[in-house]
Give the backbone structure.
Amino acid sequence: MNRPCRVLFVLMGLSLLTGGCAVTVDSKMNLVTDNTKAATLMVYREKLKFRMIGATLYVGTQDKYFFELANGGHSTISIDAGTHVLNYKIQGQLGADEVEVALEPGEVLCLLGAPSSSLSIGVGQNPTVNSKSGFYLKKTQCPTSEELSGLNG
């Protein structure tokens, strides 16, 4: 096989591999069936200077993603109260990590998406730190509007 054909086959193979990893995001996804029992979910990423700054974090349920968060990004969505399993991943990751959250009606739940650190993995640590994506989602106090505006600055 001549060189141009080999290059073409390699490029076709790479495009098939990376095309299968594309993530579709529906930021207008409706996750509320009863407005009187809805909660609000916010996910945010701190503005980082080095680690994972180029990675886009995707968050959703049942492999249907509704958040696409760049470094320093944040999003909110209304969601039915109750227990949900959230999927999260970065672009190109096969499969997703999961975290379970429980929301009460009217509650605003905030999750921080941050790069995991191999130094923090140990006995008694949150198992989501040992993730496929290199990220974890952690329940945290909601940032103020000033803090949110500073994330993108």
About this structure: The first helix runs from residue 3 to 19. The domain at 23-151 is CATH 2.60.40.1120 (Immunoglobulin-like).
